[in-house]
Every structure is written in C-alpha cells, then in structure tokens.
Amino acid sequence: xSSSPVxxxxxxxxxxxxxxxxxxxxxxxxxxxxxxxxxxxxxxETIWPLFxxxxxxxxxxxxYGLLDTLNKHFQNTLGITRTRSSGLQAAYFGxxxxxxxxxxxxxxxxxxxRAVFILGLTLEGIGxxxxxxxxxxxxxxxxxxxxxxxxxxxxxxxxxANPYMAVTGPxxxxxxxxxxxxxxxxxGTVIGPVLGSYAFFKDTGDSVDSLKTVQWVYLAIxxxxxxxxxxxxxxxxxxxxxxxxxxxxxxxxxxxxxxxxPFWRQWRVFAAAFAQFCYTGAQVAIAGYFINYVVxxxxxxxxxxxxxxALGAKLLAGAQGCFAxxxxxxxxxxxxxxxxxxxxxYIIGVIIFCSASITQRHSHTGVAMLYMTLFFESVCFPTIxxxxxxxLGRHTKRASGWIxxxxxxxACVPPLTAxxxxxxxxxAFAMVVPVCFFIATLVYALCCNFVPQFRDVMDRVGDxxxxxxxxxxxxxxxxxxxxxxxxxxEV
Length: 491
Hints:
Layout: H1 5-23, H2 47-77, H3 82-85, H4 87-94, H5 96-110, H6 113-137, H7 140-167, H8 174-200, H9 208-234, H10 242-252, H11 267-288, H12 290-297, H13 305-333, H14 339-356, H15 365-377, H16 380-388, H17 396-405, H18 409-424, H19 427-430, H20 432-450, H21 452-462, E1 471-473, E2 488-490
Antiparallel strand pairs: 1-2
Helix pairs in contact: 2-7, 2-8, 2-13, 4-7, 4-18, 5-6, 5-7, 5-17, 6-7, 6-9, 7-8, 7-17, 8-13, 8-16, 11-16, 11-17, 11-18, 11-20, 12-13, 13-15, 14-15, 14-16, 14-20, 18-20, 20-21
C-alpha cells in the first residue's frame, strides 16, 4: 500500500524538524579526547559548521580594516605622531600571544573549538563596549585598552577558527577552505575603511563629533557579537580532537614521526611561526601607514592634508578590495596548483611590488605598486597556517596557537616602520622595513618547496582522499553524545 502525499509531507517535516533540533540545542562545552571522526567529514557534512565559523572571519576582517582607518584619523583628531599612533597596532596585535599561547589555546585543548568561539565573541563584545567611554574622554590610551580587549577576543577566535577550517573536512582541500574563509575576512577589511571614510569622517571631518559616531558603531558591533555567541552556545558543530588528528596523520602517513616526538621537537611549527611573525608584521605596517603613504606621495593638486586623508581611506578600501580579489583568485588557483607553489609565487610578487613603492615621490605609481602588493599578500597568511599544521597529528591544536601567536609581528614591525618614517620624514622610504621582513618570509616559502622534510609531509596530506569518498556506518545510528556519527570507515 503506497503512502499518501500528506503522509510523505508530514514525514518530511519531521525530518527537517529533527535536523534543526540537532543543530540547535544546549549541550556540554567539554569535548574530551575521543575519536569523533569530524576530521573525516565529507564536503556536504561540513557546510553548516564552516558557514558559522566563516562569519567570524568577517568580524575580525572588519575590525582590522576599521583599525587602519582610525590610525590616521586619530593622528589628526588627537594630535599624535605616527610613532605614537602605532600604539593601536601594538595593542591589537600584542594581545594575540596572550590568547594564542595562553587562555585561548588552553581552553581549545581542554574544552574544544566551540568554547573558544564563545569566549572570543564575549571578549570582543566587552572591548567594543569599552570604546564608548574612550570616545567620550577622547583618550588615546582608552582606545588602545579597548582595542587590546577586542583583540584578545579576536585572538581567541583566530586561534580556533584557522585550524578548525583546516582540519574539518577532507585534508586535501585544507588550504582551499581556509583561503576562501580568509577571502570573506578580506571583504570585512574593505567594508571597514569604507565605513570609516564615509560614515565616520565624511560630514564631521577629524573632529570630536566623528568620535561620537565611532561609539555607536562599536555599540552595534557589541550587540551583534553577543547575539552570535548565543548562537554558538546552542549550535551543535563537529569537534576535532587530538585523537582525531593523530588518526588522520596515520591515515595519510604524514605524521608517523610527529606523534612520537614531543611538541618542542616539531621544528616545522616554529619555522612557520617565525614566517608568520615576519609576514604579519610587514603586512600590518603597510596597511597601517597606507593613508600616510598617500598623503606623502599623492600629487598635491588643491587637496589639503585632511582631504588627502579622506582620499587615502578611500584608496585603502580599494587596496583591500585587491586583497580580497587576490584571495578569491588564489583559492581558485589552488584547486589546480599545489598551495606551497602558489605561496612561493605570491610572496615573490609581494617583494617585487613593495620594493618598487620605496622610490616613488609625488606620483600615482607608488599607490599602484601598493595595490599590487596587497593583491599578492592575499594568500600568504592563511597558507602559512595551513601548511604549518599539516601532518602534526596530536600536536595540531598547540601548533596552531604558536603559528597564530606569530601575529604579534603586527605589534613590532609597524612601530619600527613609523620610526623610520619620522626620522626621514618619508613614509615611502620606510617601506624598506616591510620589504626586509617579506624577504625573511620568502625563506620559509623556499623551504616548503625545496626542503624534503617540509615538502614531503605537506604533499602527503595534500594527496590524501580522506573525506572525498563515500562513508558507511559500522553500526547504523551509532552516534556520540553530541549527535555526530562515530565509528565509520572509508569505502
């Protein structure tokens, strides 16, 4: 006897309701060190959790893009030098090691990814609320303190989100997933300067009234991230444990030695962390003083300094647009060419175009060179993370903390760049500092492509077909306490 259309519709409705309940319900934040097989999920099974995590990328992209715009306008509004304004970058990126190596990484290893996401969002919301009294008092120190708290939250998010993107799903596409997510982050870095230029300073200029506008924007950010933290609390997302990663390393034969050796002997991790330090420091120095570069090198015409600053913010948004385009195009290229090769080509492009910007004076050419620099910067950060944690097995979470902590370079290189700019009264000449750090990053890219101890491990993971084939249940309906299937095998 065939079922009626009404019965089929009712059955379909029940299935959809069960799926919704499976995605949203209160459950423990502590995962434990057990096999969840989340590292072997197929592409379709990872869509929902990776969509949620990708939202986080937009958040810290927006915060970073907004920071670059506020840097220059604080120089004008609060009457501070380029060197002192670098305190914003120092506060922002100086907070990352505390999260990546401290509380964020500890919670990641003892509780899981979801707990770190909730902590990071909560800290970001608290920091955003602290922007309100800082703006009322016109206190640069207050802005730096609030920025530090925001960055503490973002550091937690980045400590968990980058490795989560890399390890959740088929390992073959780890770099592709993280680069696509970082491309969404790059969209946030475009919107930040646009908002800063058109919403903060278009009608109010560099004045006290513009700081009042900043208050309301950060209040809106606080409300949004608090709501998102609630969503994560009730969402059921797959957790990847150390045991999962050890299992994946065995399956790909990439971590046969890594699992047996202590973490302190994983020298590939520290090489990646140093490369991240150098690269991030140089990237932040360029973005942080991009507007200063425009003011110094753009043909004079009839524009005063304030008008040039507004123009610089708009040009920065365009440069960040090139950055976003580079991430999307780089992600597409990585489907055909190994990520380590793409990384090498792009970092060479960065060095060439950034070097060309040093000698430019009173022309549009220098800005064009920085546009190309940001385009080629695009894939470097996420690819360093993904390549650095490949084949590390049970050490993956701790390794990700060290590599993300390399972001502290963003607190070290910009002040050095600003000091050179102040001494020589030339932001263009100061671009020699980022070039030196990009060259140091190039050394790591060369190791990834020509040193067997780096290259072979990366290629073995990249050639794995785990998660790409179908899966069958050993026992139909066997699930863990969070509703995810356990005990599956490849077919």
